[in-house]
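Please review the protein record below. Let me know how this chain folds according to its tokens.
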Amino acid sequence: MSDTLAVPASLAVRNMLGDTLGRDVTVNVGNPLTQKDLPTATVAIYVDAYNKVAAVLGMDLKLAAFAGAALGLLPVGGAEDAIDDKELYPNLAENVKELCNILTGLLNKEGAPHVKLDRVVLPGESLPNDAQAHLLALGRRIDLSVEISRYGTGTFSLSLA
């Protein structure tokens, strides 16, 4: 058994998002989230068996709103309103939390350490310093531009500890 997690391939991210959201998803190499994006980002913190941060996933407000709407089969207009208001509405936030839990499957592979979703930090909530440092660090990470068919495009950043 390996003692390190592997960065998922962009194809795995696309397939998992597409299967979960039930629509076509396109991914391309993207820019990482920046410090400026964090106040409105949705951040999922994954921990190992010792409750140590193992990975941090960030979605900018656009991707979180579009994914939350797509998962709930809600009209795109609600997601666009949330983006315009610079907040993730509660119904979209609840769906994104569930999506973050499902995305744990990108990290848990046979022979690798098991990780679990510890918590999801929503826009406006305080992001722990260690999670912020992991999300903004260089290293083992994948940064994608994700387009959800008939919804829109946003930023997906996953960084491993």
